Amino acid sequence: MTYETLLTIIDNGVFTITINRPDKLNALNKKTIEEIGEAIKLAESTTEIKAIIITGAGPKSFVAGADIAEFVGLSVEQGKALAKSGQDVFKQIENCSKPVIAAVNGFALGGGCELSMACHLRIASDNAKFGQPEVNLGLIAGYGGTQRLIQYIGKTKATELHMTADMISADQALNLGLVNYVVPQDQLLSKCTELIEKIKSKSPKAITGVINSVNAYFADGVDGFTAEVVEFGKCFATDDFKEGTTAFLEKRKANFTGK
Ligand code: COA
């Protein structure tokens, strides 16, 4: 599958999606959002793909936001539709049954910060900068940023970042709990691969159960504890559960099939 705004590669079960508009610091235009949705759909349906990395082309930017050039002249209804289309794709990422890691290789501003937050885990290079600068444009975040930033760093600091448009460094993001790790830029993808290899050695069925249960904490009208009961119960019908427990009792390494 080829894309206009993305580069993709499958290597050793890892699907890397690179947003490829480096001359615009990988700003998300409508086509990019649409293609990210298509790529995640492909990842869901491709058995060979076990995990996904989302990153940006070039050394300077992960994604510097939604494409501001596309905002000009939009009506209220068109603005709402734009936000809804971005939110839908970002929810698709968040609810992906396979682990999705953001490799944040520079600016993660506006829609870029929001894209990283839709991923299950975030690893930042030491030059990364995070922020929600929409108020500089007379806007607010529209791709879930007002909701997800609170989930990661709490209401106090999230409100400050949304109101001031301040950028924070990778180390500040680490201290606030927004990212999992900060590494030198040349080690960014190897750190992602290291984490993915660890996760890939576990039961894929159980990993999906973790994703669903964690997401349930924040889902509207869903009791997370009830969701956990359901996900826990589902594990007992899987080959992975049989293999995991048998391997433990036989004192050997489990060989999970994801069934
Ligand atoms: N939408 C559209 N184009 C963008 C963009 C965005 N969000 N962010 C950067 N670009 C474009 C610039 O217009 C410029 O294009 P040009 O060379 O055709 O003029 C190119 O990317 C490089 O950006 P530039 O501003 O020259 O780089 P810089 O190093 O001086 O500044 C930033 C980097 C990230 C600080 C600055 O680009 C910026 O503030 N971008 C907007 C961030 C933002 O508000 N995001 C939220 C959008 S809702």
Neighbour order of strands in the largest sheet:
1-2-3-5-7-10
How much is the average pLDDT? 98
Global Rg = 19 Å
CATH superfamily of the largest domain: 2-enoyl-CoA Hydratase, Chain A, domain 1
Compounds present?
coenzyme A
Number of distinct beta strands: 10
Strand content: 15-25%
What is the helix/strand order?
EEHEEHEEHEEHHEHEHHHH
The count of helical stretches stands at 10
Structural class of the helix and strand makeup? alpha/beta
Could you say what the CATH architecture of the largest domain is?
Alpha-Beta Complex
Q: Percentage of helical residues?
A: 40-55%
Distance between the termini: 26 Å
Q: How many discrete structural domains?
A: 2
CATH topology of the largest domain: 2-enoyl-CoA Hydratase, Chain A, domain 1
Shape: globular
Spans of 5+ residues with little confidence (pLDDT < 50)?
none
What features would you describe in this structure?
This protein has 259 residues and is of the alpha/beta class. The chain folds into 2 domains: 6-200, 2-enoyl-CoA Hydratase, Chain A, domain 1, CATH 3.90.226.10; 204-249. Helices cover 46% and strands 16% of the residues. It contains 10 helices and 10 strands. The protein has helices at residues 30-45, 76-94, 111-118, 145-153, 155-164, 170-176, 188-200, 204-218, 224-235, 239-249, and strands at 6-11, 14-19, 51-56, 61-63, 100-104, 107-109, 121-125, 129-131, 168-169, 181-183. The strands form 2 sheets. Strands 1-2-3-5-7-10 form a 6-stranded mixed sheet, with helices on both faces. Helix 1 (30-45) links the parallel strand 2 and strand 3. The protein is globular, with a radius of gyration of 19 Å. The model has no long low-confidence stretch (mean pLDDT 98). The protein binds coenzyme A. Coenzyme A is lined by residues 24-25, 27, 64-69, 107, 109-110, 133-134, 136-137, 139.
